[in-house]
Specification:
162 residues, mainly alpha
């Protein structure tokens, strides 16, 4: 793959560390405000501003994570499709089936049993039940979308190979 898992983990660690630093800075500011302001209304006003800033920072971080995830997913899919195209042999299935083999990360010469095994392996990692407690909604949506694609690829390939 063009990107390896360590690069993805580095991005995730960076974004997590950035978020923790933002939270620590906001807590420090909250303490400073509490010490310098005399009126409860002023403190409440400043806290509301800080909460809004914190929510904006969280939204920005979530958007950045989504963009990184999308770029990684696209690169991984392109790499899988490229590898699948390289492995095409004389026993070539119809061209319309090549993306389904690529989705399951299989050569186009894969047997029925290999398709079943690859499907089971992939569906475990993307199954929505595994991601129902995910922190961000886009992770749940991606898992559901990927599961639908995997099921479709599996059904089409099984029908073709049977």
């Amino acid at each position: 793959y063009l990107f390896n898992k360590t690069k993805q983990q580095d991005v995730t660690n960076f974004l997590t560390d950035t978020w923790k630093n933002i939270e620590l800075e906001l807590q420090t500011i909250q303490k400073a405000i509490a010490l310098t302001l005399d009126t409860p209304a002023a403190i409440t006003s400043q806290l509301l501003i800080l909460q809004k800033t914190m929510q904006q920072a969280k939204d920005t971080l979530q958007q950045q994570q989504y963009e990184k995830h999308t770029a990684f997913k696209k690169a991984k899919q392109e790499s899988a499709e490229k590898q699948a195209r390289k492995k095409i042999t004389s026993k070539q299935p119809p061209q319309a089936l090549v993306p389904y083999y690529a989705l399951l990360e299989l050569p186009t010469t894969a047997s029925l049993q290999e398709v079943k095994t690859a499907y089971r392996k992939k569906i475990q990692s993307y199954h929505p039940d595994k991601h129902h407690n995910a922190e961000f909604d886009w992770i749940k949506k991606e898992a559901e979308e990927q599961t639908k694609k995997l099921k479709q690829a599996y059904q089409i390939l099984i029908n073709h190979l049977s």
